């Protein structure tokens, strides 16, 4: 007797005979099951970052314009002209306060940015930054410069800096350090162009109009930034302002160690930028050549902010951060402290500008790597609020050490180098917490 067996999904199908309706093929079953699965992926997921495209790169252009406008200017001129009756340490408080205000308001600006994005912050920052510089152009007393440039203009720069940092971060994931490096190179390029431009303008149009021309240049760049900067993420709306919104992040060891490394690094990083000209002259360099050393530092920093970020995206951002941090500290001890001629000073300026430029672009990239993108504003704000204290006090401490050593730079150089190495060591611990002890891990 011949019996019929019921077809199954595992049974071979005879060619030319369609499958029975009550026994669909396996691929149809799978397709039906998949249709029942919710395939919606969150916009915060790494796979949803475009890592390119016209809008993303226009945001980088806008961020570049913002950072070009965020540099401190005219400090050297004040010492020999308007504020010549004040000590260099007293005059340095203007630039220190400028940097402090730019970073210290980070938690507030970051909180607002996370809630509403950059649409309303950027125009306000543009107005305050330009208005502060315009008022500085007609200032005549020490406290005028403190208020107009050190507080008003710097507050505007803060409202410009954080939206740029946040918006660019929302468009990039795999290429984030590279994109942030291009954006951050704006401040380096500004550091090259602005001093040369000002040096040429003052003899021709005077200090007041040199300052106003600078303000108009910044206004033009900020118009570009306001037209191009956009966040990829929708505004999530305002939530109550609580201290815990900022302090809770420090319960994460990786975050705390990263902030600690940045704090120590900032303590010493700006000292060569502020004192390289004076120390070069003391070592016999001509005034004309010495005045270009800051431009040399900033020119090298342009490449330092882009190339290490590109490498960091491939071999690990924390890995590169550790290397460049130690290199920066070693350069101070090995080159700046021992230099006695023009060539070593120029070599130090190039190498130090490159290494510290890498830090500026990698620090926010490392932080974004260990953060949820929806909280990037608050976490960036918390980071920069802490390091603003180092930026405020580092340069005046360096000035006091120069006075303590009767115009010598040994104390300042030891302090700067030690702080950089302390920061590098903190980054080592952060890297271990984030990525483990294996030196081969890409982290």
From TrEMBL:
The chain crosses the membrane at residues 54-78, 90-108, 120-138, 144-165, 177-197, 209-229, 255-277, 289-307, 319-338, 350-370, 382-402, 414-434. Signal peptide: none annotated. GO terms for molecular function: transmembrane transporter activity. GO terms for cellular component: membrane. It comes from the Eukaryota. The keyword RNA-binding does not apply. The keyword Magnesium does not apply. It is found in: Membrane. Residues 1-25 are annotated as: Disordered. SUPFAM superfamilies: MFS general substrate transporter. Residues 254-443 form the Major facilitator superfamily (MFS) profile domain. Keywords: Membrane, Transmembrane, Transmembrane helix, Transport. This is MFS general substrate transporter. It comes from Morchella conica CCBAS932.
């Amino acid at each position: 007797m011949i019996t019929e067996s019921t077809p199954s999904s595992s049974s071979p199908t005879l060619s030319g005979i369609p499958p029975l309706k009550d026994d669909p093929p396996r691929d149809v079953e799978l397709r039906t099951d998949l249709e029942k699965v919710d395939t919606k992926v969150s916009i915060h997921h790494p796979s949803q970052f475009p890592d390119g495209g016209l809008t993303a790169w226009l945001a980088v252009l806008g961020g570049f314009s913002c950072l070009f406008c965020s540099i401190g200017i005219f400090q050297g001129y004040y010492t020999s002209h308007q504020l010549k009756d004040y000590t260099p340490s007293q005059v340095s408080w203007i630039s220190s306060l400028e940097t402090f205000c730019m970073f210290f308001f980070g938690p507030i600006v970051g909180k607002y940015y996370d809630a509403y994005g950059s649409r309303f912050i950027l125009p306000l920052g543009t107005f305050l930054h330009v208005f502060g510089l315009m008022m500085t152009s007609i200032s005549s007393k020490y406290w005028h410069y403190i208020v107009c440039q050190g507080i008003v203009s710097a507050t505007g720069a803060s409202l410009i800096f954080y939206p740029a940092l946040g918006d660019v971060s929302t468009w990039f994931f795999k290429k984030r350090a590279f994109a942030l490096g291009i954006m951050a190179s704006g401040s380096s390029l500004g550091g090259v162009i602005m001093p040369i431009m000002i040096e040429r303008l003052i003899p021709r149009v005077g200090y007041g109009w040199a300052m106003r021309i600078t303000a108009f240049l910044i206004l033009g760049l900020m118009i570009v930034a306001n037209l191009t900067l956009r966040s990829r993420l929708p505004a999530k709306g305002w939530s109550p302002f609580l201290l815990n919104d900022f302090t809770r992040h420090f319960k994460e060891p990786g975050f705390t160690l990263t902030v600690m490394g940045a704090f120590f690094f900032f303590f010493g990083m700006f000292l060569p930028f502020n004192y390289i000209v004076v120390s070069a002259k003391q070592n016999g360099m001509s005034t004309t050549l010495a005045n270009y050393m800051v431009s040399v530092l900033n020119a090298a920093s342009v490449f330092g902010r882009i190339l290490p970020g590109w490498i960091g995206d491939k071999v690990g951002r924390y890995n590169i951060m550790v290397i460049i941090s130690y290199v920066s500290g070693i350069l101070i001890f090995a080159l700046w402290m021992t230099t006695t001629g023009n060539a070593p000073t120029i070599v130090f300026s190039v190498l130090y500008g490159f290494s510290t430029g890498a830090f500026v672009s990698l620090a926010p990239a490392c932080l974004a790597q260990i953060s949820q993108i929806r909280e990037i504003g608050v976490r960036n704000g918390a980071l920069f609020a802490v390091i603003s204290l180092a930026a405020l006090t580092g340069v005046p401490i360096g000035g006091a050490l120069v006075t303590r050593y009767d115009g010598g730079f040994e104390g300042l150089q030891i302090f700067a180098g030690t702080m950089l190495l302390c920061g590098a060591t903190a980054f080592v611990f952060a890297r271990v917490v984030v990525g483990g002890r294996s030196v081969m891990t890409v982290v």
